[in-house]
Design brief:
With about 100 residues, the chain is of the alpha+beta class. It is built from 2 helices and 5 strands, in the order βββαββα. The chain is about 25% helix and about 30% strand. It comes from Azospirillum palustre.
């Protein structure tokens, strides 16, 4: 499976493509795509986000299942979903 992410231009927040093409802040709300369909969805989302000047660094990343829960496959994406690692009082981990 794959998910699609971007950095929102307005505030730099990491966002994920959710159901219906809506960008969401929580990885738990991210839409998951089969590898075979991810490239087409990514191309459409990227074109729209760039046209609307919504986000940058838009790409798809691998998602695996751990204990029945989808999680990013790489440490980089796990950090991006959780927030900064240097200050636990800021970002998504503070919520």
């Amino acid at each position: 499976m794959k998910a699609i992410t971007a950095s929102r231009l307005r505030d730099g927040e990491v966002v994920f493509l959710g159901e219906g093409g809506v960008w969401v802040e929580s990885f738990a709300e991210a839409a998951l795509f089969q590898r075979s369909e991810a490239d087409a969805v990514l191309a459409d989302a990227k074109a729209k986000a760039e046209r609307e000047q919504f986000g940058v660094d838009i790409y798809a990343f691998e998602v695996v299942e751990q204990d029945g829960v989808p999680v990013p496959a790489t440490m980089r994406e796990r950090i991006r979903t959780a927030g900064p690692t240097v200050r636990l009082d800021l970002g998504k981990q503070a919520a």
